[in-house]
Write a structure and sequence with these properties.
Elements (H helix, E strand, L loop, with lengths): L3 E7 L3 H12 L6 E8 L5 H9 L5 E6 L4 H11 L4 E4 L5 E2 L3 H12 L3 E9 L14 E3 H8 L13 E4 L15 H10 L4 E13 L5 H4 L3 H4 L1 H14 L1 H24 L3 H24 L5 H16 L2
Parallel strand pairs: 1-2, 1-4, 2-3, 6-9
Antiparallel strand pairs: 4-8, 5-9, 6-8, 7-9
Helix pairs in contact: 1-2, 5-6, 5-10, 9-10, 10-11, 10-12
Length: 311
């Protein structure tokens, strides 16, 4: 049986795609397939994909009309044959031994997922930090850390390795953003142990194509889905819910401020609605939630007043 499937969704990333593909093909671990899902690219990405596919039999190419990254990843999952599944974004690169280390860590700890550190490329100083986390943590601590600020394990799928037979829920194609977080939380709820490597294996290239950089109001876009997710978490674990609630309210406040500062009226109304609706429903819990600092509680109060005054 094939050991590893690496899924790469591609949409108009010709400037970065070759380096991404080469970094995967150069892995020290050789027993893998590289599933490249061409999500209706209109630039030179298709030619690059076909060039490498013609020279390496491990590459599987899936061509589809443009339906977004979630649909592309789901097509990759449907085609995957490996015991393990990893995801790489087409404008990023990975270290040559990343998958070997992730697989070894899962086998050594008998865990169901592995996670490594991330280097952010093209960002300011201080963005990359060495994180101290135990080499094996239980799933509840891992889910809690998904909502850490600043990020520790990250709420993304690309610096992680999953067991294919434990993936029972695909990516939500209705989400514009935060689809990774939902997939990751739901997967983590079904496992017991996660391996963590204090090792930088993934290089995230923050470029002009990145959603996180392209739109100053993107924080607001993810809020409705994040609210639904943390309300699901409330039913799963009160302790995780406290951390997720703190993260959500901080994001709401940031969304309001960012949208106002950038005069993004549509994003402001999204963030405003989510903040006011959530506080009305959970005001008592917010006051008693010790995961929320008094400083943030004061900020929340200020933003609520601001939202009520600014129509």
């Amino acid at each position: 049986m094939l050991t590893l499937s690496v899924i790469v969704p591609v949409y108009n990333t010709e400037e970065y795609l070759e380096e991404c593909i080469k970094s995967i093909l150069m892995q020290s671990f050789k027993d893998f397939e590289l599933i490249i899902v061409n999500d209706g690219s209109t630039d030179g990405s298709s030619a690059i994909i076909n060039k490498y596919a013609a020279t390496d039999s491990r590459i599987v190419v899936i061509d589809t009309v443009n339906k977004g990254v979630s649909n592309a990843r789901n097509l990759g999952l449907q085609a995957a044959k490996g015991t393990y599944v990893g995801f790489v974004d087409s404008d990023d690169t990975i270290e040559p031994d990343m998958y070997q280390k992730l697989i070894d860590s899962i086998r050594a700890a008998d865990s169901e997922m592995a996670c490594c550190l991330v280097e952010w490329v093209n960002v300011g100083p201080g963005s990359n930090r060495i994180i101290k986390i135990p080499s094996v943590i239980d799933n509840k601590e891992f889910i809690t850390r998904i909502f850490d600020r600043p990020p520790t394990v990250y709420s993304s799928v690309w610096n992680k390795l999953f067991l294919r037979d434990r993936i029972t829920e695909i990516f939500d194609t209705n989400l514009i953003m935060d689809e990774d977080t939902r997939f990751l939380v739901h997967y983590s709820m079904k496992v017991e142990r996660v391996s963590f490597l204090e090792y930088v294996g993934y290089h995230y290239n923050r470029n002009d194509l990145s959603l996180t950089k392209r739109d100053a109001g993107n924080i607001a876009v993810r809020l409705p889905a994040r609210r639904v997710l943390i309300e699901e978490i409330e039913l799963y674990s009160e302790e995780i819910f406290k951390a997720a609630e703190e993260n959500f309210l901080d994001s709401c406040c940031c969304g309001v401020a960012t949208a106002l500062n950038n005069r993004k009226t549509n994003y402001y109304h999204i963030a405003k609605k989510e903040l006011l609706m959530y506080v009305r429903k959970h005001s008592g819990h917010i006051l008693l939630n010790h995961a929320i600092s008094w400083k943030l509680k004061l900020v929340i109060g200020f933003r609520i007043v601001q939202c009520l005054l600014i129509k």
